[in-house]
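Board notes, transcribed. Complex of a protein with 2'-monophosphoadenosine-5'-diphosphate.
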Amino acid sequence: MCEVTRLLGVIGYPIGHSLSPLMHNTAIRHLSLNQVYLPFEVHPDGLGTAVAGLKALGARGINVTIPHKEAVIQYVDELSEEARLVGAVNTLLFEEHRTFGHNTDGKGFLAALEEEGIDSPVGKVAVVLGAGGAARAICVQLLLANAGRLVIANRTYARAVALARSLSETISGAQVDTVELTPLALRDAVCSAQLVINTTSVGMGGSGSPPLPWELIRPDHLVCDIVYRPLKTPLLRQAEARGCRTVGGLGMLIHQGNLSFNLWTGQEFPLSLVRNTLLCRLKDEG
Ligand code: ATR
């Protein structure tokens, strides 16, 4: 019997820095699957052609990354609830001549918290720094998981207001407030919160940390950063110095990948092997 190798991959522009091929191919090899995961650099002008081409070639599934997560929706036949609420797709599944769009980013974030032994966000207050695509995915999932209240702070305040309004309109019972992204404006929110989550790119490459009222950060705050280059961002270092529990961005990266992999293959990542492989790569990068 000649079994056909199944194609998986990721499309983005640019795509060179993606860790997804390493992550998925590590799992594929470990599980001895007849599959391969490839990176494809797809210019925005060619997005529709690329999706149609991958489908025609018999690909099983594709991750979608910046800048295509929103634009790709027009090529999807059916959206998952998360993808619809987030308004973005990070995973395509090709099945029975149809294209399904999922978004595993928010669930990946929650799975990373669970892996660290952090109990559910039910009833908790979260301060979310940032109002871009990642913030939206995390906010949607926190609200679906019955978080008590979200407070969104963003450099461009109008974007925070727009995100809060859209979340309140699309998720029934959602309690979402906004504040300016300054230490002073964040004081009340930080006092009442149990979670502080950075979804901005501040801290990437080790540069700076978001403006927080540090004197109000307590050891019982859980401080999360979605940035994973470096693994320990200045935000996480400062939070650890104040005795907080912290969760870095690597867990979310791995778990959103694992959830995509599960949709395509029905299997789970060997989590510690994938984590160690990524840690080696990131350490080599310096
Ligand atoms: P992603 O999809 O990764 O969330 P994005 O949609 O471009 O990317 O959002 C990036 C987020 O990081 C935004 O909240 C952005 O703030 P603005 O809306 O004001 O642009 C935030 N961000 C990026 N650089 C920042 C900086 N130097 N200081 C504060 N916030 C920053």
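The mean pLDDT is 97. The two ends are 46 Å apart (CA to CA).
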